[in-house]
Protein 1
Amino acid sequence: MIRVLSPGFYTTIQDMGRYGYADIGVPSSGIMDRYSGQLANQIIGNNVNDSLLEICLGNCILKFEKQTVVCVSGADFSPKINNDSVRLNKAVLVNKNDILSFGKKRYGSRAYLAVKGGFQTSVELGSRSFYEGITSRVLLKKDDILPIRSFIIEKLPLNASVKVDENYFKSKDLLAYPGPEYDLLSFKQKAQLKKVVFTISKDNNRMGYRLEEHLENKLPSILTSSVLPGTVQLTPSGKIIILMRDCQVTGGYPRVLQLSEIAINRLAQKSTGDTIQFIIEDLDW
């Protein structure tokens, strides 16, 4: 078991998400930065779909009530076990009564904690990912108890660490493709999408990111149509919304771009005040 001493700003349990329920309005949810989450699981020999903790902006403190192996990946929030720094992207043995804490941010916005065998919380609609109305909890709270599996640990599964280029977290470039309504944009609007360096507003979360800058826009709303994580919408006011993992399954704003999977992962590591620039790759069929 793991006891939550401090849940931090926004900490949830996530896996690769739930699929097959869009017809009843249930989003896929799941790990925001799948690259980092999958890396943590792979390093300790887990299945890539095993559930882990997604820790947004740090300040999470956990007490382990049994021995296990963990890996911390993604954002660097200066993790420590007791008073010793924890190296990212490395299998680490944690003993009974050890305390793992996440503190000062160095880079990134979301860290991932994988434990051997994954967190054994309840499965709802094929996933352990927290989502309001589907799971009993939306966020971790103080004194929550998180069940984990028991193992006899004789040696660590991997002694080496994996080095991740910090540019993954710091680059502003996001690869995108034309969306279904892209060709309705004027030449000027398309040029703006390519040239403007956009700023992430304070209105950003697991559902979507709103950008500060806007485009001149006279496009009408569209009939409600399917949207996905990574869909870039243009609102009537000219504001841009980038949908993320907890987004709704349909929307009525023009879908002007679609982010690549890598771009979604990178965007998940950004927060208020960070900048992005779309790198639009036209598809020639």
Protein 2
Amino acid sequence: MSKTYRVAILGATGAVGTEFLELLASRQFPLADLKLLASPRSAGRTIQFAGESLPVEAVSEAAFNNVDIVLASAGGSTSKLWAAKAVAAGAVVIDNSSAFRMEPNVPLVVPEVNPQAAFTHQGIIANPNCTTILMAVAVWPLHQVEPVQRIVAATYQSASGAGARAMEEMKEQAQAILQGEEAKTEIFPYPLAFNLFTHNSKLNELGYCEEEMKMVNETRKIFANPEMRITATCVRVPVLRAHSEAINLEFGSPFPVAKAKEILSQSPGVKLVEDWQANYFPMPMEASGKDDVLVGRIREDISNPNGLELWLSGDQIRKGAALNAVQIAELLVKENLPSPPELAVSGKN
């Protein structure tokens, strides 16, 4: 990586934007220049990076001039408004929102799973949903040995999935409840402290919410298997940071537990965490701030001879968002950042 690159962070003041900054520094990304972009209300702020005070600029078309890579995490509507403009200015956009994930000409990439897809981009590369990324990192190594026939997932999603303000809201709710006061809600529809509720994204006609369908559709795209049988139930739980998932896998034949453990213990992005005598397995508290997805409690499905159960915890802000995007950028710079062909996404709703 002798060449250096000009990077812009769109959504620099948010939780994922803050994580982008930490990762660019800690992973020594080859930066020639760094721009921090956000909404006009954040313009004029300064953020510390590598010993410097960098100004936050209001996003504009001119802000993308002389930028090689845009790391975007400012929401779907913002990405739809600005991504095409950034590409037209000559940048490659790695977008963390759901805006472009299911567009057929936009690669959806988890570097441990389908790194080659990044090089088919036409200016925009999509970062998958956090729950999809965590599951894919754990399931893919097993799928490579014995194709998975069916996935049944249940998620236990932390407040961090709704952003930094949601985390603060849960803290305030906990304090209020402990003091015998009413728990007020602003970000979430219901109190999350000392509570849980099924994911409150919009339901479809089959009763599945958007978060659940993201896991279904995005996993199919990443695994290049549009007919893969997947179902999910997504739940928000009173955890500050890092998501957990219970995954049931069905194979075409029995998959030995010892073999699964051996594979996962050697898989990139995975850390095997198991102590059966101590009943010690992955926990979100221990996954927080970590790059790896913690995987454990691997066991046979006693209801299905071809089934395997596993449990995982992973940092939603880190591997579930910012780290995955930075890893995609690292893939590109290793190949000297191929220039995007003519933009082939409209940026429309």
